[in-house]
Amino acid sequence: QVQLVESGGGSVQAGDSLRLSCAASGRTFRSEAMGWFRQAPGKEREFVAAVRWNRGNTMYGDSVKGRFTISRDNAKNTVYLEMINLKPGDTAVYYCVAAESTIYSAKYTFTNSDEYDYWGQGTQVTVSS
Fold it and tell me: Mind listing the pLDDT tens digit for each residue in 42-51?
């Protein structure tokens, strides 16, 4: 089994910054991509960002482009999400996700939740105005 453990959430003021971390542990797996989704109360789950593990290609949701940066540390099996200029609309539970490499991986955009195999428990980010 693969576990994803998120850390770094918290409560901040609008305009502040936070960095989320997600470490993968458990059985060895060949990761194709890791990323983040978020879900606010009463809203649908939203794609935030993802990174392809080997190529390093990054993808971002429109609402976070220019403010969030995703990065990875292959040696530590860890992905980071640097968030700056946070807004109240960023308030949500942030979930780390990971996708194993399969024969279908080349067709995926990794912006859809059903393209991921593993999910973390989530970490709360609250931004007050």
Answer: 999 999 999 9
**Cα–Cα distance between 70 and 75 in angstroms, integer?**
16
Pairing mode, strands 31-39 and 10-13: unpaired
Distances (CA, A) of 68 to 23, 41, 98, 106, 122: 18, 21, 18, 25, 17
- Chain-centroid distance of CA 69 in Å reads 10
How many Cα atoms occupy the beta-carbon half-sphere of 46 within 13 Å?
A: 19
Tokens at 56, concatenated: 């390093």
Model confidence pLDDT, tens digit, residues 72-101: 998 899 999 999 999 999 999 999 999 998
From 127, 124, 129, select the one nearest 9 (Cα to Cα): 124
In this predicted structure, the answer to whether residue 123 has a pLDDT above a threshold of 80 is: yes
